[in-house]
Design goal:
This protein is an alpha/beta fold and 150 residues long. The protein has a single domain, classed as Flavodoxin domain (Rossmann fold, 3-Layer(aba) Sandwich), CATH 3.40.50.360. Helix content is 33%, strand content 22%. It contains four helices and six strands, in the order βαββαβαββα. Strands 1, 2, 3, 4, 5 and 6 form a six-stranded parallel beta sheet that branches. α1 packs across α4. The radius of gyration is 14 Å and the shape is globular. The two termini are 22 Å apart.
């Protein structure tokens, strides 16, 4: 059976909570998954997994957070062809670029050759009760889908 990775950057705990809910969905569907903060490992470790999901919160008006920058830059050294990926994150709709860091990360993964899901999960702040199941479902669909989540 394939092994999956959910990695995240979180300052206030919002993106971490989303990541934990995604992991719940993956494990409930019978798959093995590792949950890691991007500050605790090197980006090259994503190559050890069938596929991976990256969570990142957006800082300011669409910017990547500081603690995510090393991981983001390490991606430039990787050939991600043949790897499935999805991106999720938290943000604030009061800014013009809602969850802009999610979009930047998805583009970087595509540049490096990953098969990035066209579906991205964007949550304002922390998931509301009705959004929690959507987070779990996002994880379930990713690991059970083909090359794309539909």
């Amino acid at each position: 059976m394939a092994k999956w990775l959910v990695a995240y950057a979180s300052m206030t705990g919002n993106t971490e909570e989303i990541a934990e809910l995604i992991v719940e969905g993956i494990t409930a569907s019978g798959h093995e998954v590792d949950l890691k903060s991007v500050t605790d490992f090197n980006a090259a470790e994503v190559l050890n997994y069938e596929g991976f999901m990256i969570g990142v919160y957006t800082w300011g008006d669409g910017e990547l957070p500081d603690e995510f920058l090393d991981f983001y830059e390490e991606l430039d050294e990787l050939d991600l062809h043949g790897k499935r990926a999805a991106v999720f994150g938290s943000g604030d709709t009061s800014y013009e670029q809602f969850c802009g860091a999610v979009d930047l990360t998805a583009e970087k993964l595509k540049e490096r050759g990953a098969e990035v899901s066209p579906e991205m999960l964007k949550i304002e702040y922390s998931p509301l009760e009705q959004e929690k199941e959507s987070c779990r479902d996002f994880g379930r669909r990713f690991v059970t889908a083909g090359a794309e989540i539909s």
